Amino acid sequence: MKKRLLILGMIFTMAVSSAGCGSSSSDNAGKTDQTKQTADVQDSQKDTSSSDKSDNKNDTSYKSADEITMDDLMSHDETPAEDFELIDNSDEIVIEKYVGKDPIVVIPDEIDGKKVVGFNKTFANDKDVVAVRIGNNVTEVAKTAFGNCEKLKYVVLGNSVKTIGGAAFVNTNLQNLILNEGLEKIGEDDFSNMICPPMNNEGMDLKVPESVTEMHVIGFNLIVKAGSYAEQYAKENNLTYTVE
C-alpha cells in the first residue's frame, strides 16, 4: 500500500512539474512575441521619423504671388546656379532658362567667377515667377524678355542695363519697375513695341533716370527730372508726368 501511494505521489509531482514548465514556456513565448512586436513598432516609428525628416529637408515653402512684396525681392539672396540652364562661354555666361521653383529670382552678377551678361528670354511664358532682380553685369533687357510672364509684379534692373527692348513686359502683372541710372533707351518706336503697364495698373509711377535719351512708353505716370529728356518726351506726347 505504501509502495502504491509512493508511486501515485511521484506521478502527481511529475504532472504538476510538467504543467508548471508548460505555463512558464507559454509565458516566455508570449513575452518574446510581445517584445518582438514592440521592437517592430519602434523600428517602424524610427523609419517613419527618418523619412519625415528627409522629406522635410527637401520641402521648401515659398510665399504666394499675393504675399510677395518688393521688400522680399530686395532682401532676397542670389538665385543659385543650379536653378538656371546656362550658356557657358569662355569668359562670360548667358542664362538660357530658369528651372527653379522660387517665384523670386535674383540673377547673380557672376557664376563660377564668370560675369553673367545676359538672360535671353529666360522668363517669357513663365507661369510662376513674381519678382526678378537683374544682375549688375547684364546690359540689355531683350525684346519681349518677360512676355506672358503672367504673375510678374516686380522688376529691378541692374546697374549696367543700357536698353529695354520692345514689349518687354507685355501680358504681365507689372506693379513696380525700378530703372537704373545709366539706362539709355526704353522700348521701340511703334505702338506694339512700346513699354506699358498692364491695364489693371494703368497710370502706375515710372521714375525715369536722367541718363535716358530715347523712350517709347505709354500708360505711366512718369516721374522725371526738370529739364530732362523724359520731361520733354512727356510734354510732346501729352503724357501724365510729375517733376521731382
From TrEMBL:
Keywords (A to Z) from UniProt: Signal
Coiled coil stretches, renumbered: none
UniProt biased composition (Polar residues): 31-41
Residues covered by region (Disordered): 21-71
Biased composition (Basic and acidic residues): 43-66
Gene3D superfamilies cross-referenced by the UniProt entry: Ribonuclease Inhibitor
Superkingdom of the source species: Bacteria
Signal peptide: 1-19
Keyword presence, Signal: yes
Stated name of the protein: Leucine-rich repeat domain-containing protein
Annotated source species: Roseburia amylophila
Organism lineage string: Bacteria, Bacillati, Bacillota, Clostridia, Lachnospirales
